[in-house]
């Protein structure tokens, strides 16, 4: 029965009352002959590596190399030799040299063995040429205590970014949205720094100089470098401020009108050249269905793949609401919606035949599927993007006088985000159209109603006058009859 487990230590094994370290390593193949369980395999591998270390040391000795290999554990190979004393250490009887075993993390396998031999030759050469010096690499964990700050090797920018990322995940949830935030708002900008150099003011300024002034790239890089340098303990605020630029106003989007959206439905499904990709020349119904869903419900492009299709097509869903399942997209903003999302134009359900599900099977990761939607819009030469359909949905809500809080719930964000992000995309024409529908139409309707009411009152007044005249005539007649 095997005594193997994840913490098994082969150096404690014995066979026929012989400890494994007393057994000739050269005969590692004969160890526990006839047995082949996992623990025996580990013991034989330990003996094999012990024999390999012995062979390597014999070869180093022939080369007159005084640094030799040592199997420090069953899983690692170290280096052993006489070196100058470490800072703060002394040898026997005040000798300036002392024997040390240096652990550099070489794994006890054939690759680790070759690396250890190469390092032994390197250190021996430094000793011979009297250039040997204790470094943070050689001291390992002791470096923090032994080496003065001036002698500690500065961390590379790539190492600092790794530490920065660890700090980031302490305050962010590791889901799709969190990963996208790290990659888009942090790493994308930090990658503009030289990764294999220490973080210096020169490196920061060089990265900033590669961006153009008064651009969003310069603005966000400056913002991120300020945070990163503060995290790393580098006082670079003045240097970064010298390059800082205001956040430029966003490019005005051209939001499609309802008529253009309907026209785009036909364009998105049009067959293209035979030289186009497979996704572009096939499945026109799938492209149209995806387009119709984005246009009708104002979805973020990736949320298309989170729609609960079974609930959507349920006959009891008389108001054609859709619900989103964030689990289908590995975490999205869809969790912010506390209600079903309605179509602001219910007749588009039939116009775009949305209940006849033709969901696109684009394959690949969620990001790849979303990217293919954007590519399709460009390929068919639509002069707006998938996200513009969402903006059109937001503006449509204003035109229909849906309360802002309600529209925010439909779109899955806060009221502040709704007013900040979506109302700014309203063009002069869109605002004028809303004014016509909400104000002029209302005033016009009021004038027409007032005019009709006046006409009714005038007719009623004429009727009362005629009735009054009739009553006067009757009264006079009665008075004459009484006198006679």
Automatic annotation (TrEMBL):
Gene3D superfamilies: Intergrase catalytic core
Cross-referenced SUPFAM superfamilies: DNA breaking-rejoining enzymes
Tyr recombinase domain location: 267-436
Domain of life: Bacteria
Coiled coil: 440-474
Gene Ontology biological-process entries: DNA integration; DNA recombination
Endoplasmic reticulum in keyword set: no
Name of the protein in question: Integrase
Organism this protein belongs to: Dulcicalothrix desertica PCC 7102
